[in-house]
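Reviewers of the previous submission asked for a worked example of the structure-prediction workflow described in the proposal, so we include one complete record here. The input consisted solely of the amino acid sequence. No template or homolog information was supplied to the procedure at any stage.
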Amino acid sequence: MTSKLTRSHEEATIGRFRKDPECAAEYLDAILKDGDEAELLQALQRFSKSFGGVAEIAERAAKPTADELAETRVRVGDALAALRRTLGLTNEDCEIFERARDKTPAEPLKFE
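From that input alone, the workflow returned the following structure tokens.
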């Protein structure tokens, strides 16, 4: 049992991972290289405690950053422009598509 002045090894490890996610990544790499299944399970439990639980980790992993979204939009825009040029579509053609498209907002993704 720990007193208020000391922390357990588990608490210290979780605290270190929170402060330094790169350390957590290096720890996982070492276990994947040399560890066994029990060590991997223990590491995953520590990561879960360090980073807000499995649901939080999954949500953060699936939620792109603003920079990633901007880069994706640029790539999609470039691809659409290239497709338009390849098909020989004019600006007038694109305006017709714009008027005809469904403008109902998409339902946002939900993470449960």
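Residues 9-62 form one domain. We consider this example representative of the routine output the project will generate in years two and three.
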